[in-house]
Amino acid sequence: MALVTTKKMFEKAFEGHYAIGAFxxxxxxxxxxxxxxxxxQNSAVILQVSKSALxxxxxxxxxxxxxxxxxxxxxxxxxxxxxxxxxxxxxxxIAAGFTSVMFDGSHYDYxxxxxxxxxxxxxxxxxxxVVEAELGKLAGVEDEVKVDAANxxxxxxxxxxxxxxxxxxxxxxxxxxxxxxxxKFAGEAKLDFDRxxxxxxxxxxxxxxxxxxxxxxxxxxxxSSVETCNKYGGKIAGAKGVPNEMLRKAASKAVCKINMDTDxxxxxxxxxxxxxxxxxxxxxxRGYCGDARxxxxxxxxxxxxxxxxxxxxxx
Length: 315
Prior knowledge:
Blueprint: H1 7-16, E1 20-24, H2 28-40, E2 45-49, H3 51-57, H4 59-73, E3 77-84, H5 87-96, E4 100-103, H6 110-126, E5 130-135, E6 139-142, E7 145-147, H7 157-167, E8 171-174, E9 179-180, H8 193-205, E10 213-215, H9 223-231, H10 244-251, E11 255-260, H11 262-278, H12 285-308
Parallel strand pairs: 1-2, 1-11, 2-3, 3-4, 4-5, 5-8, 6-9, 8-10, 10-11
Antiparallel strand pairs: 6-7
């Protein structure tokens, strides 16, 4: 067994009107919780690593743990760089054995984003690695990604077609109203599905058949996790995410990859806070980390089944 790229995952997802879950990983318990859930649901899965996670755990440790997950579960797993800030980080991850990378040039002006993305695509494709890029700017804060609402911009459909043509990128993360972090919306959540449909139609007209679209900042910010955190001493007030039904609708369209990070962080924190609150005498990390792993698995299983629609995607 070996890691796979996302290419066939996305082909099947587009045809099947579901999305593959892309879950950010930082340690063994998160990896195990996610892949155990994917195994239970017979679903392919993407494990993704941010620049901060690379710094925290190290690419060699992360790759070794993911290799163990592949061997243990037998499911299709892609290892993906999330929000790669530069080609040096891309090269580091490809050298470590990642099968997919994302270069995020959305903070550059358009022409520079095109040029830098093309450079990444040429290098990655020469090494058998697929590339995701971003066009448009999502609001919110997550690791190194920090964009205030005033500077957030939706993806222009015509520009999306031009971008894909000129860069040769394999999938495109677009901005239609999602946001990074736990505080996504001050009012009601709204995703621009008309914009998504227009981008899909224009890409099809341009010859990009069943082109895979990616949604970043797509955690639902599960209320039960927030409530548990706050019950046991947390201070997470006003957190609000993307409703699950909106994500399911996106997954039934051209969105083939949906990124979730905040939901996993909240679940892990909720489980550990609850464990500390109910068993203040305990000090064995296997206890509270085990509780966190279990809650992450329950959460991811629900996401795969009810949000992504990806159950049995390994068939």
